[in-house]
Structures are given as structure tokens and as C-alpha cells.
């Protein structure tokens, strides 16, 4: 194995000092894996990200000034005039914000976008609370506009995460935010991790190869969604030598099937050669939101403190208040639009405008769920006749409880409503009645309760108009996978998770993917 500076690649051949057990006698291999001399380039990443955040916060203040100086006076005539002097007076706010991000280690964390966005919102909010305290304590009320500060905070909640995302994406493309890693374990977990890192360039990790003891993994290495294969460079026993010669000192251990004692020995051995080791434990499906890592020093034991957020009365109150406020605001905007949809349904086909059905609510109580009618009144008879003539449709119905290709029960207007999920708009009244939530598990039918089996933790939450299943594939997801996603949502609930799902729902609905 050698590093070719002219090509910028890590080259391994059968004649190298490191030749894995996967090379058969007389067979030469020539694996070329892109490697970037990231150590020097990465030095520019942190200052560039700091500059990006300062620009974001400065733009937030300028946009806030535009709103205060031009838009607000048009609505409220009695407001006094404002000037750029108020903007200049807040010159220190972007600097203070970046200091808060540094304190929170925001520039060194490598996490998915929505997780980072949640952390940014919290840090930004805290920074602006400190700004208000400073203005009050230093008696700058005459030279600082409190309305400007408030508007700047609101603008920053959108601008800072967005510009941080695009700046990281750009830095990744030019190999500044990029950080090469070696993944130990080329099994299903390793492949899942590879695809995640491919989808999330915001994290910045670039897998250059795998290590695995399984010979078949060398012959059939994992592939990226683009079809590009990521080679297996050697076995676990060769890890130290490969790390030392490649100069790649960041490793992800993705071998949850490895016995605990061997896993500990492997991590302890590699810790001497690496800067960072990420370990993916065999804890899939366990609640992780808000989990705290602790340790018992004398016993040398690792302890995970895990909470059930929706068992907390205070969290339930927060979720309910959030649902009611947002639903009320949305209903004032949506009611005129819903009246137009109601008229279209009435003109298109005979029957009621609203379809009412019994669904399972929180704690297993049943309630009447509202939807716009998208089917003909005699839908059940139409379905029976269609299934009796189309055997392929029966398989589809049994698997998804939906007819994906063609559903004869759906009206012309109903097809459009389903594609854009507009048929679910009346459920906002279920939210206002306290029967549903904006975000939550899928509203299941009473007959589906038996299929839920050990997933009854789903009933800790009100069902939602949208949910994790909605932004993860909608009706393309099989029933068992929906249950798993809903169960994960309930056990990992947070207010930011609800907000992020609501934002992602808009993009999913506009694409129309998975809607039938």
C-alpha cells in the first residue's frame, strides 16, 4: 500500500507489504481509493464556517431592518421611523453568536443536517437571549431596537442552518470539509452506514474502504447508490498497519455482530493509532433521543441513560400547546382553500364531501377521523369486483393495504387530492378537538390493532396528520416497517423532531412520491 501524491490515491497491490487474505495466489489487484491530504485543508474548514455564520447573522440583522423599516410601518402606521444606526449598534451580535457556536463545539461536530439544524436553533436562541440581557443591563435601549433584535432572531432560525448546510456542501466538494474514514465491517451495518454518509455530505465523512474478515466481502465489495464499488482493503488484523501506512486516522467500527470482548479488544488496539473512533453498537431500535452517556469509573462500565419523552407530562403539554397554536394559525389560512376543494368534490361525484372513519387514538381510544372523500360511495363493492378479476392486485392489497398502480374506487378529484395529500386537510379539526396531533404515528384502523402486537407503545401518542412514515416513503413502505417507524418516533419524540418532520412533509408532498 502506498500514497501516490501525483494521483492523490491510495494504491494497494498484491505485492505490497499489506496484502489481505482476499488476494488469491498469482492474482494481482490494483485498488485505487481517493484519499485527500485533509489535515492541511481541514485547517481552513473551521474559520470558513465561522465566517459563514457571521455572514448569516449579519444578513439576519439586515433582513430584520428591512422588515422593520419598510414592511412593518406599512401595516402599523404609528410606528416611529428607524435608521441604519440601529443596525450598526448590533455589530457585535454576529461575533457573539459565533462565540456561542464555538463554545458548543458546533464547528467540529459531524452530524446529519436535521440534527445539526436543531442544535443551531437552540444555540442561536440562547445567543439572542443573552443579547437581550446585555442590551438591558448596559442600558442600550435608546440605541438598540428591540423589534430589530426579535426579527433578527426569527430570520437567523432559517438563515444560519441553511447557509451552514450549503457552505459545508461546498467545502465538501472542494475537499476542505471532507474527512476520509475506514469502515471496519462490510456487512449490512457497514453498507447502511456507507449509504447514509453518501446521502449526507453535510457530515463530511468519505469512506475510502472497508476492513472485514469475510473473504466473500472482498469478492463482492459494498456499492454506492451510483454503482461505484468501495473496496475491502484487508482484514481486522491488518487494521493497524493499514491505518499507519495510509495516514487515515479516523475509523468507524460497524460490526455489531462482533462479540463484545473482541470488539473491546479491537477498539483498544486501534485507539493508539487513530484520532477518532466511532463505534456503532448493537442497539438498533432502542430509543436514542436525549440519551445520556455515563460511566461507572470503578467498574469501568458504560451506562446509557434513556428517557421516554412522551411519558413525561410536561412534554405532552408542550406537544399539545404546539399542536393547538400551529393548527389554529393554519386553519385560518386553509379554510378558504378547503371550501374550494369541497366544491370540487361535490361537482365531481355524488356523495358526502367529508369521509368519516373510526381510527385508534391515544391510549387505544377510538375516534372519528375526518378526510375529504376521494372514493365513490360504493367503493367496497368496486374493490371486491376488481380484486376478483385481478390476482396481482390482491398481492398488492395484502402487502400495502393499497392499490398502487390503479385504484378503480378513486374519483378524478380524489386522485389529485391523494397525490398531494390534500384529502387529509380536514384532520386539522381532529387536532383542534384534541383527538390527533400535527405529527404522530399513522392513524390506524381498529382492525389493524391485532397486527400491532408488541408495538403498542405507538398508542402513547395521538396519531398525526403527518409522521415519520410519511417522510420516509409514505405508501411505498410496508405495514411492518410503518409500525417500526411509528414506534421509533414515539420513543424518540422531541419538539424539534416534530418541527423537522413538518418541514420535510412539505417537500415530500410536492414530489408526490409514494402517494396513492
How would you portray this structure in words?
It contains 18 helices and 14 strands. The chain has three domains: 45-173, no CATH class; 178-284, Rossmann fold; 313-375 and 410-511, no CATH class. Mean pLDDT is 82; it is low at 1-36. Strand 4, helix 7 (188-199) and strand 5 (205-211) form a beta-alpha-beta unit. The protein has 516 residues and is an alpha/beta fold. The protein has helices at 38-42, 45-75, 85-88, 92-103, 113-137, 146-173, 188-199, 215-219, 239-246, 260-270, 313-348, 379-389, 391-400, 412-419, 427-432, 449-452, 479-491, 495-511, and strands at residues 2-4, 9-13, 30-34, 179-184, 205-211, 232-234, 250-253, 276-279, 292-296, 301-305, 354-360, 366-372, 437-439, 464-466. Helix 2 (45-75) packs across helix 4 (92-103), helix 2 packs antiparallel against helix 6 and helix 4 (92-103) crosses helix 5 (113-137). A five-stranded parallel beta sheet has the order 6-5-4-7-8. It has a three-stranded antiparallel beta sheet with strand order 1-2-3, with no helix packed on it. Helices cover 48% and strands 13% of the residues.
| Global morphology | globular
Class per helix and strand makeup? alpha/beta
Task: Catalogue the unreliable spans.
Answer: 1-36
Strand order of the largest sheet: 6-5-4-7-8
Reported for the largest beta sheet, the result is: 5 strands, parallel
**Helical content, roughly?**
40-55%
In angstroms, what separates the terminal alpha carbons? 52 Å
Average pLDDT, rounded to a whole number, is: 82
Oligomer: single chain
Number of strands: 14
Beta-strand share of residues = 5-15%
Number of domains: 3
Q: Number of helical segments?
A: 18
**What is the alpha-carbon Rg in Å?**
28 Å
